[in-house]
Design a protein that fits this description.
alpha+beta, four-stranded antiparallel beta sheet, three-stranded antiparallel beta sheet, 15 strands, globular, binds 2-amino-4-trifluoromethylsulfanyl-butyric acid, binds cobalt (II) ion
Length: 258
């Protein structure tokens, strides 16, 4: 069942989503060579809890930390760890989900650490464009498959591949709700979008092949070919005329600079 949120519910959910975005703004200034992904986890955890929210990943199906930190060939669900030290040229995805006033807000960005090779910088830039292209086709009457189709088209045009095993999702009172939002597919297929639907779009785009593997920790997803993977995520709501991105920090609108 896909839940349709009322305008009051959207108002409250927006607060949670904005806090998740603010957490990314906050951490973006602090990322530097030499720090560990656990340092990032602690900073995000403290920021979220200081704002009276709960970090949704913590203990979610046994996930041990408060944010996901996915470095280079890690596609998603990387577990923060003291041993993982940021080095010059890395790309790092930080995925923040907050639970505030009974609603979840879910957003992630891939950050450049120091001087990243132009080839990898381009992967990150195109991945951002893939997410935005997916968002921009959303409006009442559009279909779920339209989102996947534009994302896949842009990724393939650049010679990249799209991860199939993980997808966007409905979100609200639950972290993961229906529907599943695939980042590949065919225009004109899938369910019709309706006002009040809230879901994430979070394409994972690989420099090499799309295939992935889960490490023995049962969480960390990496590319089989060990080439880098990038991701961006927003939570959006379908409005009467189109869409609204909920995970924007109103005090610091994110300007990607790659
Ligand atoms: N935030 C991720 C998503 O975008 C889910 C993380 S699940 C966790 O859906 F358990 F790993 F935190
Ligand atoms: Co998500
Ligand atoms: Co997320």
């Amino acid at each position: 069942m896909i839940s349709i949120k009322s305008s009051r519910e959207i108002e409250i959910m927006t607060e949670s989503c904005q806090l998740a975005a603010k957490t990314l703004t906050y951490i973006s200034d602090k990322i530097e060579v030499g720090m560990s992904t656990e340092d990032i986890n602690v900073l995000c955890h403290d920021f979220i809890t200081a704002n009276d929210a709960y970090p949704s990943p913590l203990n979610y199906h046994g996930f041990p930390k408060s944010v996901c930190t996915s470095l280079n060939e890690v596609i998603c669900h990387g577990i923060p760890c003291e041993k993982d030290i940021l080095k010059d040229g890395d790309i790092l995805n930080i995925d923040v989900t907050t639970y505030f006033k009974s609603f979840h807000g879910d957003t992630n960005r891939t950050f450049l650490v120091g001087n990243v090779k132009p080839e990898v910088k381009k992967l990150v830039a195109v991945t951002y464009d893939c997410m935005m292209a997916g968002i921009e086709v959303c409006k009442p009457g559009a279909r779920l498959g339209d989102i996947g189709a534009v994302i896949e088209k842009l990724a393939h045009k650049n010679g990249y591949s799209v991860v199939h095993e993980y997808c966007g999702h409905g979100i609200g009172r639950e972290f993961h709700e229906e529907p599943q939002v695939l980042h590949y597919g065919k225009k004109g297929t899938g369910i019709e979008l309706k006002p009040g639907m809230t879901f994430t779009i979070e394409p994972m785009i690989n420099l090499g092949k799309r295939h992935c593997r889960v490490l023995k920790d049962d969480w960390t997803v990496i590319t089989k070919d060990k080439k880098p993977s990038a991701q961006f995520e927003h939570t959006i709501v379908i409005t009467e005329t189109g869409y609204q991105i909920l995970t924007l920090d109103p005090d610091s609108l994110y300007e990607p600079k790659f």
